[in-house]
Write a structure and sequence with these properties.
Length: about 160
């Protein structure tokens, strides 16, 4: 009698029976519920910027928000809200990842799309890191640093 390979059969069954969680697609990383909540908050912040929705942006960020904007300008919440109209076009979050430690999370990612920002003109792809804190109302953005990808990095596929 030949030995039965139980472990490989079980692994195959587990692979077939595994469902992709809601919000994830096959081949995409699976996230915990909290990671998904942070990533959704991050996406909502970008949507508020795209829609020039000062109220939504205000609700999604803490009062002491700080943003290191492209070009090196350090902005507080009021400055960011005042500048919402300077971004024209469409930006999308891609390659996002959330790391959570206690009530603090960082989100890293890339923004790209067909957009321009006054007075800089067309925006290249940009990498960012954002800090979120858990509050009674959910995850709120505390800070974000954004840097445009350098041309050489784009050419080499590094950004």
């Amino acid at each position: 009698m030949k030995p039965v390979l139980v472990a490989p059969l079980f692994a195959l069954f587990a692979l077939i029976a595994t469902e992709v969680p809601a919000g994830a697609e096959a081949g995409q990383p699976q996230h915990s519920t909290e990671e998904l909540a942070v990533l959704q908050a991050n996406e909502a912040v970008l949507r508020a910027v795209r829609d020039k929705d000062a109220k939504a942006f205000g609700d999604l960020t803490v009062n002491d928000l700080r943003v290191l904007a492209p070009g090196g300008r350090l902005e507080d919440k009021a400055m960011v809200i005042k500048g919402l109209g300077t971004v024209v076009g469409n930006l999308d979050n891609v390659e996002t990842e959330a790391i959570i430690v206690g009530d603090t999370a960082i989100v890293t990612g890339k923004m790209q799309g067909n957009a321009a920002m006054e007075p800089f003109g067309k925006l290249p792809p940009m990498k960012y890191i954002a800090t979120f804190v858990r509050t009674g109302e959910g995850w709120r953005m505390l800070s974000r640093a954004i840097t445009p990808c350098a041309s050489v990095a784009i050419e080499k596929g590094a950004c």
